[in-house]
Design brief:
The chain is α+β, with helices and mostly antiparallel strands and 68 residues long. The chain contains one helix and three strands. It has one domain. The chain has one helix spanning 49-60, and strands at 22-26, 31-36, 45-48. A hairpin with an 8-residue loop joins strand 2 (31-36) and strand 3. It starts with 21 loop residues before the first strand and ends in an 8-residue tail after the last helix.
Length: 68
């Protein structure tokens, strides 16, 4: 979904649709933006692609399973 900011925001297909999701969008100079889907006009976090890759690797490896 393209937001009012012109960014191509997306969330996981497994998202429950109840608004408790994060959305990601490709940003400038290889960055990745993240926001809370409940508050699309709220704050946006910025990460490097390496930071996102490290997080995804940890998530795939079960490092955060105790938080779910």
């Amino acid at each position: 979904m393209i937001g009012n900011d012109g960014l191509q925001w997306r969330k996981a297909a497994a998202s429950s649709g109840n608004g408790s999701c994060v959305e990601l969008a490709p940003g400038l100079a290889g960055s990745v933006y993240m926001r809370d889907s409940k508050d699309p006009q709220g704050p946006v976090l910025t990460f490097t692609r390496k930071e996102i890759a490290a997080f995804l690797e940890g998530a795939r490896g079960g490092e955060f399973d105790d938080l779910a």
